[in-house]
Amino acid sequence: EDQVTQSPEALRLQEGESSSLNCSYTVSGLRGLFWYRQDPGKGPEFLFTLYSAGEEKEKERLKATLTKKESFLHITAPKPEDSATYLCAVPPNYGGSQGNLIFGKGTKLSVKP
Amino acid sequence: DTGVSQDPRHKITKRGQNVTFRCDPISEHNRLYWYRQTLGQGPEFLTYFQNEAQLEKSRLLSDRFSAERPKGSFSTLEIQRTEQGDSAMYLCASSPAGIYEQYFGPGTRLTVT
């Protein structure tokens, strides 16, 4: 069964304390890995797409990287406004699927000032 | 450019009642997706449309659920004979065809009492 597992479930950081979030997946023939940010009570906000191992994408304090079996979301010198749940997702690897996404449960990040 | 919009944002209903939600996608996007999200979980795929055609449905979509997208524009998701287990955030997303990056609306929070 295709799965996406994120760790840790929750992460508390002090402002300025860099760290990484992990997303591992079991889908073979990866057709993309997607990172989203979700604030409480809101819909997920698209951040990055990664397609191949070794690829990296950056946006402000966030950098996403991809290997053959996992992705990392690195947060450098985080600020309180980076507090949110970060979700990763992949398209499933079964015949006929045209684009629905399998999401992990997310990592809830809290950044204290 | 407006993003994906959903209406209503919140709905409280009594068990056994029918409810209908509306989603307006980004105007140039011909794919539209419905997901359900419960507390502490990532979004779970329900169904998706390409233009007016419903191309895929999850096993989560019981026969009490029906979705339509007349004329390939907005979509509605109806839940008949609601149950307490239907309480969740219902998310709508859209994308251009052939692109996996999905852009989400703010969601409709359903509470079944």
Search tags:
heterodimer, A: 113 residues, mainly beta, six-stranded mixed β-sheet, five-stranded antiparallel β-sheet, 11 strands, globular, B: 113 residues, seven-stranded mixed β-sheet, four-stranded antiparallel β-sheet, 50% strand
Q: Would you write up a description of this structure?
A:
The complex is a heterodimer of chains A (113) and B (113). With 113 residues, chain A is mainly β. Helix content of chain A is 0%, strand content 51%. Chain A has strands spanning 4-7, 10-14, 19-25, 33-38, 45-50, 56-59, 62-66, 70-75, 84-90, 102-103, 107-112. In chain A, 35% of the residues are buried. Chain B is mainly beta. In chain B, the strands form 2 sheets. In chain B, strands 2, 4, 5, 6, 9, 10 and 11 form a 7-stranded mixed beta sheet that branches. A 4-stranded antiparallel beta sheet of chain B has the order 1-3-8-7, with no helix packed on it. The A-B interface holds A 4, 31-32, 34, 36, 41-46, 49, 87, 89, 91, 96-106 and B 4, 31, 33, 40-45, 48, 50, 55-56, 58, 91, 93, 95, 100-107, 109.
Indicate the mean pLDDT of chain A: 92
Average pLDDT across residues of chain B?
Answer: 94
Number of DSSP-assigned strands of chain A: 11
Unreliable stretches covering 5 or more consecutive residues of chain A? none
- Given the structure, what is the number of helices of chain B? 0
- Span between termini of chain A: 41 Å
Q: Based on CA inertia axes, which overall geometry of chain A fits?
A: globular
The total count of strands of chain B amounts to: 11
Q: Hey, roughly how much beta strand do the residues of chain B contain?
A: over 45%
How much helical structure, as a percent, in the residues of chain B?
A: under 10%
Topology diagram in text:
The complex is a heterodimer of chains A (113) and B (113).
Chain A: E1 4-7, E2 10-14, E3 19-25, E4 33-38, E5 45-50, E6 56-59, E7 62-66, E8 70-75, E9 84-90, E10 102-103, E11 107-112
Parallel strand pairs in A: 2-11
Antiparallel strand pairs in A: 1-3, 3-8, 4-5, 4-9, 6-7, 7-8, 9-10, 9-11
Chain B: E1 5-7, E2 10-13, E3 19-24, E4 31-37, E5 44-50, E6 53-57, E7 65-68, E8 75-79, E9 88-95, E10 103-104, E11 108-112
Parallel strand pairs in B: 2-11
Antiparallel strand pairs in B: 1-3, 3-8, 4-5, 4-9, 5-6, 7-8, 9-10, 9-11
